[in-house]
Amino acid sequence: MASAQRKYRHMTHNQEQASPQQGNVERPPDKEPSLLGASGITGSMTLVSRFLGLARDIVIARLFGASDASDVFFLANKIPNFLRRLFAEGAFNQAFVPVLSEYRSLRSHDDVRELIAAVAASLGGLLTVISVVVMVAAPLIAVPIAYGFTDNPAKFDLFVEMLRITFPYLLLISLTALCGAVLNSYGRFAAPAVTPALLNICLIGSAFLLAPYLHTPELALAWGVLIAGIAQLLFQLPFLLQMRLLPVPKHSPGHEGVARIKKLMLPALFGVSVNQINLLLDSFIASLLVTGSVSWLYFSDRLMELPLGIFGVALAIVVLPSLSRSHADKSPEQFSDTIDWALRLVFLVALPATLALVLLAKPLLITLFFNENFTVVDVQQASASLQAYAVGLLGFMSVKIFAPGFYARQDTRTPVRIGVIAMAVNMVLNVVFYWQGYGHVGLATATSIAACVNAGLLLRGLIREGAFSFAGGWGVWGLRLLLANTCMGLFLYFRAGEWAQWLSWSVSEQILEMAILVCGGIALYVGILFAAGLRWREVYR
Question: Which residues contact 231 (CB under 8 A, 6 or more apart)?
């Protein structure tokens, strides 16, 4: 029945396109690739971006190391990126995509254009004001964020300067996220997925081309962030222009769609604000730790984000519009089935990724970052936090799947309540681990535990509300994963050997051995899965 409804709606849309009387001849054709196909498009483009991000981190680590100025940049860059979760892929995106999907399905193309223009005006105006205030009041705002830097005036002043340079990135990336949400909703996944690569390209270029000419070379990284924000926004505009959906801001007081988005955002804003307080506490504690702590957390987080960004985020991007359409079509069976399918893929990817990051933490860091600027001590310290982050990878990925299950039903309150609980757990554990002397590893551990708590409570909520139930076959699925991960883990453990021996190898020897470990591990994992009975139809949708 739901399939018939969707077919009728598609036929209706085509009729609207063909009819000049409707005034919708410019409606862009719908692109509906399979969920796995869409995830593959997004994931492959994200893979390019993530590898460029890895190259960026290698450049930063080898050129600047874990220095005072590096700590300052990583902390300053965190502020607009934290807020990006509120105004970009965070609360805003969670409220905007379901409303946009509804407009796309039930209203005219002109109505969609008016919605986008009104949202662009509202979002852009608010963020412009915030950016100006932060840049003017940066010395005051910097105190609670980087309190640990206040006893070093030069370090604190550098933080203020970098904060002023990087903060406008929030406005630029939020408008970019608006454009990306529109493109994703219309099945154009490639352009938004490749856009983040521009940030990495700009940072790498700035590190090599701009740094030699600045009194503090690390300032080049801050300017690279700002340049990237401009480039990312400009990159997506031609695609929207082709679709006749260019987000030209238009102030529309009382617009029904904007009002609904704001209403949906309010509880999410509260939840994210709690999250930001928690992140502020993280930053505050990190600034109190020994020099290098912020950098160690950054590099370990980036490596953990590699599988999360390539797969978890890509899957979440394509799942939200699909779940929104299932909800609009009143198809609860398809809704639950989509979450079940996505969760199976999360387990399929998260478990071996966790195992690999734990077992190969030191060899991986040595291969990528080790030199005279990123020392053996840096390798040891960063590997400990990487292992702590890796333990929470399944939780991080699962949240990306479960949270859209609520957002698609235009329920932002429940994830907020759960998020508040998870953040409270994180904050308490941060303080406890700090006083126990666990340093930066304690911060990473607290983050992982909080992610698992968040995922568990979201899952319980979906089940209680009747929105999700496990499909059959999970027992067999779990046994296959157990067998494949066990075999892969044994291979990685015995093949990698003692990490200290990696220090004596040349870079080419390290790269070759890491390639053998990664490619061999993947081949063994996939081979055992299919030998154990996994079939392509179980993962393809």
Answer: 198, 202
